[in-house]
Each structure stands twice: as structure tokens, then as C-alpha cells.
């Protein structure tokens, strides 16, 4: 199984913006929840009925890593939170690359080591989870079957990078990923929003997944 780099992966008030963007149902209750990391001005919208996998749970899962590099990178994580339509999804399933039959979204803000900062490019941002650019430019007999549906620059007020939507087949299981990876202007911080599930699940939930991906906002540290 491929190993995910995510395992190893100033103050802007957003309360007003979040409050203004709440969508209300006819009975007056919010239809969306807005996870936010105010220190970096990061937030996104997710349906109110999606189940949260908390920062504490995710951090505890990463603490189980035995690889020293993975532990070092995990220590650089400033904030992370995950959601799924399935309450049975575990933190371990959030981080691994096994296909799941319910949408899983992971948001993550991580500081970069100096050597990482110097080497980050749009290609490395595309390779946050799988070596996608290598599959494209240097295919081998073991390269998984994959398809890229969309790949575009993503520019936010406090960061810029790429959003890539693609699918690949691993161990006979086809899954799709909507991945946004952004870099701060000073190249010190990376912001990731990753949404994935089996390709059948992805197509079934495509409208909701697209809405979540498009809501991802990074205002940056002021």
C-alpha cells in the first residue's frame, strides 16, 4: 500500500464571515457547519449532518506512528479536523489509502521544515497523497490505472496552489479524490483539503463534495 505523506504531512477573525454565510433551513437551524482555524484564517463548509473526527482523535492516531520522519512532520501540524457521512469511519481510515464507501474530508494546516519550504512546487502539491505527477511523466509497469478529471490553479487571499480531482485503482479498488493543496506566500505553511471515497461513492456525492471543496478558504496570517 502506498504511504500517504499526510501521515508523515497570524490572526484573522473569520467569525463574522462565517456567521454571514450560514445557510438556514425553514425552521431556522443551520444546514452547514463551518470548521475554522482562526489563527490562519482557514475555514470551510460541511453539511451539518456529517460526523466529526476531532483534532484530538486524529492527533492520537498520528502519535502511533513509528516512523521518525512521520512523527517529526506530525509535530508540525497546527490544526486538522475530519468529517464523514459515516460515524463508523475511524481516524486510521482517514489517514490510510484504502478505499472507503463513505465520503471522508480532511482539512490540515501544517508548518513546513526549511528544506520542504525550499522545494515546494505545484507538482509536489499535487503529490500530497500519491505521486500523481510521476505517474503522468514517468509511468512504469506498476503505475496504477488513474484518470485526472480536473487540475487547476487555486488562488486564495492567504495562499495559492492547485486543486486536482482524480481517480486511481489500488488493490482492485477504484477511488476518487478531490484535493486542494495551497502554500502560504512566505512558503512556511501548507493548507490541505482532501475529500475522497470509492469512485461510486464519489459520483453519488459529487455535488456535496464539490461544494465542500469550493468553500475552502485561506485568508492567511495577518
Tell me about this structure:
The protein has one domain (15-218): Mog1/PsbP, alpha/beta/alpha sandwich (Protein Transport Mog1p, Chain A, 3-Layer(aba) Sandwich). The longest helix is centred in the last third of the chain and has 10 residues, at 206-215. The model is unreliable at 1-28 (pLDDT under 50). The strands form 3 sheets. Strands 5-6-7-11-10-9-8 form a 7-stranded antiparallel beta sheet, sandwiched between helices. A 3-stranded antiparallel beta sheet has the order 2-3-12, with no helix packed on it. It is built from 9 helices and 12 strands. The protein is of the alpha+beta class. A hairpin with a 2-residue loop joins strand 8 (146-156) and strand 9 (159-170). 27% of the residues lie in helices and 33% in strands.
Helix content: 25-40%
What class, by secondary structure content?
A: alpha+beta
Task: Specify the CATH architecture.
Answer: 3-Layer(aba) Sandwich
CATH superfamily: Mog1/PsbP, alpha/beta/alpha sandwich
List the uncertain runs.
1-28
- Count of DSSP H/I helices: 9
Strand order of the main beta sheet, please? Answer: 5-6-7-11-10-9-8
Largest sheet: 7 strands, antiparallel
Amino acid at each position: 500500500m502506498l504511504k500517504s505523506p499526510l501521515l508523515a504531512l497570524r490572526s484573522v477573525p473569520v467569525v463574522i464571515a462565517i456567521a454571514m454565510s450560514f445557510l438556514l433551513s425553514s425552521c431556522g437551524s443551520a444546514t452547514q457547519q463551518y470548521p475554522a482555524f482562526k489563527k490562519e484564517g482557514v475555514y470551510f463548509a460541511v453539511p451539518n449532518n456529517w460526523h466529526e473526527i476531532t483534532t484530538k482523535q486524529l492527533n492520537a492516531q498520528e502519535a502511533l506512528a513509528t516512523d521518525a520522519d512521520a512523527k517529526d512532520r506530525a509535530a508540525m501540524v497546527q490544526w486538522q479536523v475530519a468529517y464523514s457521512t459515516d460515524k463508523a469511519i475511524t481516524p486510521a481510515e482517514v489517514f490510510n489509502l484504502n478505499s472507503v464507501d463513505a465520503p471522508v474530508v480532511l482539512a490540515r494546516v501544517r508548518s513546513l521544515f526549511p528544506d520542504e519550504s525550499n522545494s515546494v512546487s505545484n507538482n509536489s502539491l499535487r503529490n500530497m497523497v500519491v505521486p500523481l505527477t510521476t505517474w503522468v511523466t514517468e509511468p512504469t509497469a506498476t503505475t496504477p490505472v488513474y484518470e485526472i478529471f480536473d487540475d487547476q490553479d487555486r488562488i486564495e487571499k492567504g495562499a495559492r496552489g492547485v486543486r486536482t480531482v482524480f481517480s486511481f485503482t489500488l488493490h482492485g479498488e477504484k477511488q476518487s479524490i478531490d484535493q486542494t493543496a495551497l502554500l502560504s506566500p512566505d512558503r512556511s505553511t501548507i493548507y490541505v483539503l482532501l475529500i475522497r471515497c470509492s469512485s461510486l461513492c464519489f459520483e453519488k456525492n459529487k455535488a456535496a463534495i464539490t461544494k465542500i471543496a469550493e468553500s475552502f478558504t485561506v485568508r492567511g496570517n495577518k
